[in-house]
Design a protein that fits this description.
With 67 residues, this protein is mostly helical. The protein is built from 2 helices and no strands. Helix 1 packs antiparallel against helix 2.
């Protein structure tokens, strides 16, 4: 479960960084990327990030069983 959550978190961060890089390069040649596409990409990255972090936190409140 933690490996999947870590992968989802990394994918969310990568998607957000990709959108930022895309928007920075779009500033050099305006009109290449529609603002709605960039907003949806950033929102999707945010959702992946939140889901991944929630997956990492899942089960942390349970006490450890020894033995």
């Amino acid at each position: 479960m933690q490996r999947l959550a870590l992968f989802v978190t990394a994918a969310g961060l990568l998607l957000i960084v990709g959108v930022v890089v895309l928007l920075l390069t779009d500033g050099l040649t305006p009109g290449r990327v529609a603002p709605l596409v960039a907003a949806l990409g950033a929102a999707g990255g945010g959702v992946l990030l939140v889901l991944g972090l929630a997956g990492l936190e899942h089960g942390r409140d349970r006490p450890r069983e020894w033995g």
